[in-house]
Amino acid sequence: MESTQGSERRRVEKEDLKRGVFVAIYCSHGHKKDYELALPYLEEIIQEAEKENRELLLILEQAGPSISAEEITREIESIFGIQLSTGELLRNEKLTHEVLKNIFDINQSKVTKEVEERGVKAVTNIKAEPLIEFILKHGLAVKLEEAPFEAWLDYQRGSEFLKRGISLFLQGEEEGSLECLEKSVEYYLEALKTRDNAFREFIAGLFTRFPTAWIVTLRGPLHIGIHKGLEKNGIETRSMAVEEFIADTFSPFELLTFRLYNGEEISSHERSR
């Protein structure tokens, strides 16, 4: 006769077999070719999930509504009846949260609603066409990353400092230019950290609704390691890199950001080059 302890152990083991899995496929996504290279990895995961008879959810990466500084300025004038540039807004903390938060919420809700209603057909990124066609062919269920306002705001701040730094460099003000470029990297780093933290919370929340699903995402190389935070919370994860990300893979800005994000110190010699 089976003991109560043995029966309980088998029950737990059976439940563990049904646990959901988070799969991170790290790949570049600056060109159509990048997505084409990633698709065989995604195909492999789909086949494994089907064999396991698991539901599969594909999370579409997004860093917030993609609107230019000019579009933001036009929307501010249209909604609030005032003429302010993004740069002017970012220098005023009160206006930043009263005006830019409103612009973010309006545009983010539009994007989210379109994806909920039309699925991947709502995605307009031409570079992602191979992925879009693949998703439609396989009938994959998709969900959109919930990008936080704070991360989007830091991207805007970083962009403003980058433009200011380039402008100062062209004027021959190298010291001021360097300070602005360093601030740009700082804000970009903060945006990455905020997004990654929010993404991990988002995935953990999805597993409470879909506890046995395979949740899959394609993430850029600057997000490498995001799955490790989920592992610490007891979520089973798998990760794979489409290519070996080396110095030549990144632009100088991305390489600097990647090194700082991973805790590297930049020597005074490198800073002065």
Descriptive notes:
The protein has a five-stranded parallel sheet, sandwiched between helices. It has a domain at 20-55 and 211-273. α2 (32-51) packs parallel to α6. It contains eleven helices and five strands. The protein is of the alpha/beta class. The chain is globular, with a radius of gyration of 22 Å.
Nutshell version of this structure?
The protein has 273 residues and is α/β, with parallel strands linked by helices. It has helices spanning 4-17, 32-51, 69-80, 86-90, 93-118, 129-138, 149-170, 174-209, 226-232, 252-261, 268-271, and strands spanning 21-26, 56-60, 141-144, 214-219, 236-241.
The best one-word shape is globular
Percentage of β-strand residues:
5-15%
The SS-based structural class is: alpha/beta
N-to-C series of helices and strands: HEHEHHHHEHHEHEHH
Strand ordering within the main sheet: 3-2-4-1-5
Helix content: 55-70%
Largest sheet, in brief, is:
5 strands, parallel
Distance between the termini: 76 Å
Q: How many helical elements? A: 11
Average predicted confidence as pLDDT? 82
Determine Rg (CA atoms, Å).
22 Å
Tally of extended strands?
A: 5
Topology of helices and strands:
Blueprint: H1 4-17, E1 21-26, H2 32-51, E2 56-60, H3 69-80, H4 86-90, H5 93-118, H6 129-138, E3 141-144, H7 149-170, H8 174-209, E4 214-219, H9 226-232, E5 236-241, H10 252-261, H11 268-271
Helix pairs in contact: 2-6, 7-8, 8-9, 8-10
